[in-house]
Write a structure and sequence with these properties.
The chain is α+β, with helices and mostly antiparallel strands. It contains 10 helices and 9 strands. It has a single domain, classed as Aminoglycoside 3'-phosphotransferase, Chain: A, domain 2 (Alpha-Beta Complex).
Length: about 260
Amino acid sequence: MLAKDLSKMGNARVSVEVLDGINCVLKQDASEVEIHFYQTAAQNLKGVNSPALVKLDGNNLFIEHIPNRISLQELRAQPDLFVQLASLHRSEYFPSFPVKKHEWTDDATDEALRILNLPNSAESSIKRVQSLSSCIFECKTLISGDTNDGNWGTRDNGELVLFDWERFGHGSPAIDLAPLVTGLGTISDYKLIIGEYTRHNALLPDAELLRHLIIAKCWIIIEVVNILVSRNNPEQKKYLDWYKTTIPRWLASVKESL
């Protein structure tokens, strides 16, 4: 049996396995959201490429192995990246199962700020952004919730596929756009990605989507910091040091666009 652990930030243990002579991905203890996604939602999301369901054994999910990893730079160059995301965000499909509830809690902020130990001005700015954040969670748009480049790949025929759906739920399209910006990004970076995306889905005005993107980026900081520490990620010091250096300057640079 071939088994290579692929898990990074997720809860499930993920490996490549051989099933009946075919390579597939096994997610052990997959979440109910992701199991229901592959059983029910995937076939209802037209224009969105996700792996085929191979087998379900209790909470062990066997799905099509997407063989070719892709960097963020390569992902952004894919011509159908924003076409697929726009198709997801425009979908009228309504899940018949409970999806991931995205939220930004005071407890999460307090814990991340304790870990980061930022200057008081930066802490105040993050709390202000949180106070504005309800807009990105109240949207009824379907989202992946986790579009970072590590969750994309290509089939051997070149098709682009998104293969991690445990955070499938509702929210602003900005939640799916934010991970596609390198690092924390700049206002120019956000405007560039908004321009690419709105060619395919212009439901939100550019200024509103920009505001949502900044909020989503700030929320992702809180999420990632807490995940790094709670799961004892071996690279946590590197990422936390980078955040501590970068966050104050970034907050100052986006303040006027909120």
